[in-house]
Amino acid sequence: MGTLPKTKLGDGLTVSAIGFGGMALTPVYGAVDDTESLATLHHCLDVGMTFIDTANVYGIGANERLIARLLADRRDEVQLATKFGIDGDPTTGKLKARGDAAYVRQCVDESLGRLDTDVIDLYYMHRRDVSVPIEETVGAMAELVTAGKVRHLGLSEVTADELRAAVAVHPIAAVQSEWSIWSRDVERNVVPAAAELGVGFVPYSPLGRGFLAGAVRSAADLSSDGDLRHLMPRFADSALDANLAVVQVVSAIAEVVGATPAQVALAWLRQRAESLGVASVPIPGTRRAARVDENAASLSVQLNADQVTTLETAGTGVSGHRSIDPGWVSSARE
């Protein structure tokens, strides 16, 4: 059994210093194998990567059911996060946010059933439903804490103002939004607000959906037609050259420090969060156990000030919006 360092997010929630994003274990980036996925999840726990993140919408419930198979024997080892608030099928990109109180109560019971557990450690509002006051959504989530169904609350892709309004209703353990060398819009307002309010930050897609790890050199490297990245502006042919230039800088620094590109991208994010004074735990996802080891080892990679600056300068050259729909993420409401 391995152990990783621990990080305290907000509201007293302590998790492994790097987590695991479960979305990759459903067929959003191509075909998956449940046997391999389950082995990868067990390997996470074996090395001490105990913060496991899923959502009701991943695989339309299939991801939670897969994670239930991990929890069956090892529930007490896991800090379990799941989410509600996206209605629709993520593989089509046709989604809407929903945050009314009745929906919150319905979704938590459905997730508890699929996960076959009696409590969720961290329950996130996955997207902001602008037709419902955030106080109503968070108020309904707070009732779940009182009822013992949920231990801590989180919010995904919220603005600084939305975070402040939520914290006024109930303590928030974490904000989960995209953050990486090439997705830094959250640094303007949301990250400083989280730092000020004592809320943790959980960066998703910290490796740019595999791009910053050097996994994609051309559109041909993307998986089948079902690969969500085909729909993303950054993976379009017109953007690839500019974005590969960013990856070349990451790879060059990786050679110098004796690490992989993925480890450099994760180390940059860790050091950036430290400099901004926010407790941060990224959740890279993978289907393979070897990548879990690689990501965990990033915790011992240290970049010097010049390398950090070089990476940040390279990141400004990114081409294309980080989301299929720019209105779907927090920057559109800031």
From TrEMBL:
Entry's Gene Ontology molecular function annotations: oxidoreductase activity
Annotated NADP-dependent oxidoreductase domain residues: 17-312
Pfam families: Aldo_ket_red
Location of region: Disordered: 314-334
Assigned GO CC terms: cytoplasm
Residues of the signal peptide: none
The keyword Oxidoreductase belongs to this UniProt entry's keyword annotation: yes
Swiss-Prot/TrEMBL keywords: Oxidoreductase
PANTHER family: AFLATOXIN B1 ALDEHYDE REDUCTASE, ALDO-KETO REDUCTASE
Protein name: Aldo/keto reductase
Source organism of the structure: Mycolicibacterium sphagni
